[in-house]
């Protein structure tokens, strides 16, 4: 069978950030022509594909962009789903499906979905505003989340005591019991139109203590087999329940008493899968493309253990980015630096990531710490 | 140290074919802005970087293109070296150096260089024209090579008997003793400005019986350690003798009596290194970029055994390319298809390649044969 995407075809991506950039990089192998929509004309994808500047949340902009594409996908959830639904009606393929994006856009509907589908997750109450949050003092310590538009650590805060209730978000959101977890893990799962499902091996994430961003991760996660299996099953159950086509990242807590609870899901390539480019047979990016093009899913096996360090803008630095220590880390065997092509840095901005691979897990950890301490994004 | 190539920098590539395309794909990780010069406005690189249409052999065209770049490299040898020399005088960095490109452009000067540097190579005589070739009947069976502009199997023919002397090339070239070889192998070696040198493990190539193109290859080569070591030493000796900066592919014969003889060299990424993208810690493309940017060279170790199959246009097909069997091969674990984005196919045109990785060598060979038999480039 010859495949349609190799000639006279266009794959549209809503969002032109680093995830789109790595999708394009992967799609070069399959000769996929991409079109990108992003509000920032200097977005990481801008020089690598047909690029359109426009708002992802604007109905007409998304309609016009999508009309010129054959398949439309996303690399960020905050997009106009009404336009995507209309494009589906007009015969376009949109993966992940607009109703899945909509469900995930709101952390409240996400939580209701877990509860209704029997997916284990932390206990929660929905809250409508700050006053409503303050009525739930007995629920503390808790995590207060905004329903919509939280991203990369924004819209999420911990409320430990009644005193901290003063900071409560004053918009529809939720309170979630603070989980005293042992580990944070992630499983990335893919599903194509035929319903084929494959999961990547579980990875273990370490978050930045303040910024609520993945600071670094290790694959494979050090976990009892039963717990890894449980996490894998949960990821499969979620994507099957949603009948979603594409890639879904499932972030989970492992509690101190060995329970697995779903924290959040993202229907796209994810920060917790960057290391698959070097460490697995198929990368998460190729897997997403395979899923939405209805190709057979790729083998997700790990070839070599990997770690990933997010390269965040150094606090106190704002301006044209410079990469201090680049040469020092490039000298270390198994270190792969990925820069996202962002001209300007600011504190904690995701400027790139570094994958480290090594057969020896102790050496892998050592190299990871060296990268974390050596490579810095400063302003020139 | 912050590095200059991450802002306000341009890397120019002479040639916009598949090797350039994979250099760009690799360079995305280091955030390298590329400019490409190629005569074909639909060249594989055309949609992926700043693209200029023009002749690589034209002095003024190369001068104008190079003047706007900081470093200039090549992905094909047939370029105007006078312009490159002038660019060096004007302070540009040109890697590989123009005099190395010039030496390699002519198979006659290449052979003289081997002889003068004590590099083992097949016995040869220089020939000026067809009549001159015919005077060397006693040298048969031999390979008759044109001095200049042979590429991808063109400009090379075997003359077995006096009768075949009628086909002799009528231009400056050479006759080389036909080697009754056991294997054809390749070593890719890199050198940066500091003189650091690293080789990739030896690979074993199988050539198309008629087209003189690499049909498929295996890495690692099955060779006695002493012979692999000899091949490695030869590659290092050549790049050191040339003081070349960049990547050099050294193709060699292993004779039935266990000698290693240099066949040809190419001062750029090479068909015999494609599998390094998936199978080695550092790919040949990243290594070339590291070498010419004067970064520390990357670890060349193999992570997993790999094979590579060239995807050539099917004989009898000419027109818009279609990839028959794409889905079938995509289903096989460890198969990575790389399409070069060429719209039109013709018989034996290099349209892409497939890398296959597997820890089990028998399975690797089996999968390689399956890919060779299944994936075909036909015209729609």
From TrEMBL, chains A, B:
It comes from Dawidia cretensis. It holds the Pfam family PurK_C. Belongs to the PurK/PurT family. GO terms for cellular component: cytosol. This is N5-carboxyaminoimidazole ribonucleotide synthase. Pathway: Purine metabolism; IMP biosynthesis via de novo pathway; 5-amino-1-(5-phospho-D-ribosyl)imidazole-4-carboxylate from 5-amino-1-(5-phospho-D-ribosyl)imidazole (N5-CAIR route): step 1/2. Keywords: ATP-binding, Decarboxylase, Ligase, Lyase, Nucleotide-binding, Purine biosynthesis. GO terms for biological process: 'de novo' IMP biosynthetic process. The lineage of its organism: Bacteria, Pseudomonadati, Bacteroidota, Cytophagia, Cytophagales. GO terms for molecular function: 5-(carboxyamino)imidazole ribonucleotide synthase activity; ATP binding; metal ion binding; phosphoribosylaminoimidazole carboxylase activity. Catalyzes the ATP-dependent conversion of 5-aminoimidazole ribonucleotide (AIR) and HCO(3)- to N5-carboxyaminoimidazole ribonucleotide (N5-CAIR). Residues 111-293 form the ATP-grasp domain. Its EC number is 6.3.4.18. It comes from the Bacteria. Homodimer. The gene is purK.
């Amino acid at each position: 069978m010859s495949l349609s995407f190799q000639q006279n075809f266009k794959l549209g991506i809503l969002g032109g950030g680093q995830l789109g950039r790595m999708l394009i990089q992967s799609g070069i192998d399959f000769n996929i022509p991409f079109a990108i929509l992003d509000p920032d004309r200097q977005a990481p994808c801008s020089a690598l594909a047909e690029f359109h500047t426009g708002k992802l949340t604007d109905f007409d902009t998304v309609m016009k962009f999508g009309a010129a594409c054959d398949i439309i996908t996303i690399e960020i959830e905050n997009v106009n789903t009404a336009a995507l639904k209309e494009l589906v009606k007009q015969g376009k393929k949109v993966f992940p499906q607009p109703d899945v994006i909509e469900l995930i856009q709101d952390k409240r509907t996400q939580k209701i979905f877990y509860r209704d589908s029997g997916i284990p997750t932390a206990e929660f109450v929905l809250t409508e505003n700050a006053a409503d949050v303050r009525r739930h003092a007995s629920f503390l310590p808790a995590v207060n989340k905004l329903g919509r538009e939280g991203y990369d650590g924004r819209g999420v805060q911990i409320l430990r005591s009644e005193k901290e209730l003063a900071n409560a978000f004053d918009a529809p959101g939720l309170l979630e019991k603070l989980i005293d977890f042992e580990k944070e893990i992630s499983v990335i799962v893919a599903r194509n139109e035929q319903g084929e499902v494959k999961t990547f091996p579980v990875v273990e994430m370490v978050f930045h203590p303040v910024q609520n961003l993945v600071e670094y991760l290790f694959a494979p996660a050090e976990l009892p087999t039963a717990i890894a299996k449980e996490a894998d099953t949960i990821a499969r159950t979620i994507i099957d329940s949603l009948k979603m086509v594409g890639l879904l990242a499932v972030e989970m807590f492992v509690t101190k008493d060995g329970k697995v609870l779903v924290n959040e899901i993202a229907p796209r390539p994810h920060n917790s899968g960057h290391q698959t480019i070097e460490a697995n047979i198929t990368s998460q990016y190729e897997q997403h493309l395979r899923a939405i093009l209805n190709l057979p899913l790729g083998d997700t096996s790990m070839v070599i253990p990997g770690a990933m360090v997010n390269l965040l803008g150094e606090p106190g630095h704002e301006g044209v980015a410079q990469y201090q220590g680049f040469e020092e880390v490039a000298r270390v065997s198994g270190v792969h630096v990925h820069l996202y092509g962002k001209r300007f840095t600011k504190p904690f901005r995701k400027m790139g990531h570094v994958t480290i691979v090594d057969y020896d897990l102790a050496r892998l950890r050592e190299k990871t710490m060296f990268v974390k301490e050596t490579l810095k994004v400063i302003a020139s």
